[in-house]
User: Fold these one by one.
Assistant:
Number 1:
Amino acid sequence: MRFQTSQHLQSHRAKSDDERILPLVNVVFLLLIFFMLAGQLAASDPFEIAPPQSSSEGSAGTQDLLVLIGVDGRLALDGEMLSEADFRTAVAERLSNGEAPSIRLKADGGAEATQVVAVMELLRAAGVERLTLLTLPQPGSSAGTPTDGESG
């Protein structure tokens, strides 16, 4: 009986190293496909924003800070939702770390203009020297990517 078990195991052993590693390769590829389908490459905004449209064309370059203003007045700085007081504190902390960075302002098209202007003035008072207002191109314009309207 013992002899039969040994022969049985030897007959099911892989014949080469390639055959033994093949199940591992299959599992790794399945995990890779799963993470490609389920993962995100970039952080999404904490709330939905529909930027206003603009006829100006320009590129949205890489900037240091991203400020979001929601239709209901919610504020976010670099993907983190903040109250107005926390927003002021966070901006002051970020700007106190050295040179004044450029800021991209992404406001919802339905947001109150007075609140957008108030946030812009708050940023200017905090020492921001370059502010970019992100907008979408108007339908029918040649640009297909978000544009920026700069304020200095």
Number 2:
Amino acid sequence: MFEKSEMLYLYVETPLHAGSGSSVGVIDLPIQRERVTGYPLVQSSGVKGKLRAEAREALKNKEETDIDEKIALVFGPESDSAQEHAGALSPGDARLLLFPVRSLVGVFAWTTSRNVLARFKRDLEAAGKKVDWDLTNLPDNGNAWTVDQISAVAGGKVVLEEFAFTAATHADVKIISDWIAENVFPGSAEYTYFQEKVRTNLVILPEDAFRDFAQFATEVITRIKIDQETKTVARGALWTEEHLPSDTVLYSPLHTTRPRKIKENKIRTLQSAGDVLQFVRDLGLERIQLGGDETVGRGIVRLNLSGGNEL
């Protein structure tokens, strides 16, 4: 069983395509989604694989020794030796916390729902984090809960895409938005604006409305390849990709155990579950590229490891 846990927050800075393969639907390359809720996510294997690659590069840059041994202890051996022992770090799926939607007022608003917040609180408490907020009710259909009647509200309505919701203030929204600003968003200076924005532009929607936005308000990008001879689209080289939009906020629990290669482990700094968690912190990662389309600048994600303590 896991011995230590922390929460890793991922702020999507450029559109993120964590693909689920080809599709026979309208979109050629859809993103990964939960089967039941339809919420977007990034599967834990993708999070772990990327952290592993970034960790190796970070250790090389620091000119550390025993890099292969440290990587194997934390993330597990390479696939051809996977039977030897498991890794000591177990990231969870990166789940949806805040989903940005185009707004008539304030450019965009961060939306969420009681279902999302309840799962987030449950995951926080499973990671040993106590929070002092709760959301015991949910908005009625056609209503949206906001921080106040000024931000994101026009004429008493919250207008998201082409849908209007009657705005209602709710004290819990203010408490939750303040908590998210202080604990989820990075504490560095370039995020001051976004911290203040979430304090005023958080909207809690009815469950079905939020699910519909999370399913149908993602970003769809058309990709092509030009035939250099004809200067037209190359045969078969026109496709569409689905992306999580910029400013989406995800979270992934990081669980650790002591390294499982007990007798042969000679790395003194990796002897316990706490050592493994500290190893991740000491990597000093701020931004990583996650998902596909790395060479066209997609998938840049800002990391924040629990409580404003940055990786």
Number 3:
Amino acid sequence: MDALELIRLNLLSPMVLAFFLGVLAVLLKSDLSFPEPLYAALSLYLLFAIGFKGGVELSKTSLEALLRPALATLLLGVLTPLLAYALARRFLRVRQEEAAALAAHYGSVSAVTFLAALAFVQAAGHRAEGFMPTLVAFLEVPGVVIGLLLARARGDLREAVREVLVGRSVFLMVGGLLVGFLSGEEGMAKVKAFFVDPFNGALTLFLMELGMVAARRLQDVRRLGARLFAFGTLVPLLHGGLGLLLGHWAGLSLGGGVVLAAMAASASYIAAPAAVRLALPQVSPSLYIAASLAVTFPFNLVLGIPLYYALGRVLWG
């Protein structure tokens, strides 16, 4: 599969096309909108389904197989916020608190990017390890916590960490993971028609809504300038490359390594914003939301994931 075929495979997937349909709806001032209850229901469904399917796979995985990938993921959870913080301070020249807010977002994970990467490697004929949702949880928490520590937040830091741990993204994924792990294949057989077969359809609708949200943030990108655009595209490349190297070291398959790279390259827009707003109210959300959702997310969706896959094929040989 050549580079053009990789890009075609990604661009013509229903998920990516739905994302840009949402962007187009905003640019053309369409009256299209998602009811808030539907958006919330899709979020809950996707997050629990991710965890549940991962838990079923985890019930069939040995501790020995999980150990090195878990260590690699935790290392990513420490390194990526530190790198993002240093780059934000040096190249964006933002204040310490603003750099820490960006570090929390770029150290954490976008669950939808994770899902898009899973769908991509599957379409490319590969299969990521079933315990990958476990690694999402491992990467989600340390990135946010380190970002908040970098801001030297006082008073509210403990509450902010609690907010991350019990927030819907981590809670649902970890909870779903536990349910899937305990119920195993027998439990999966009972709910497969709801949590497996309709999954990609729900993801497609969710991405349409995200496309509309991203389009509404384009004004922020224009206002903050080219440096924010450069930050939002170069940091994912750096983090994605690091994810590939650590995934290879951990013994993941090509599919698993590419998904880990996409996880490291992504930026959170669910758990991290909730925590940052609580701990760093003086930082404008337009900075980190515009960077993560209007720049990094579409970049990974269109170019990043195929690029990580192409680099992975070279690394895995």
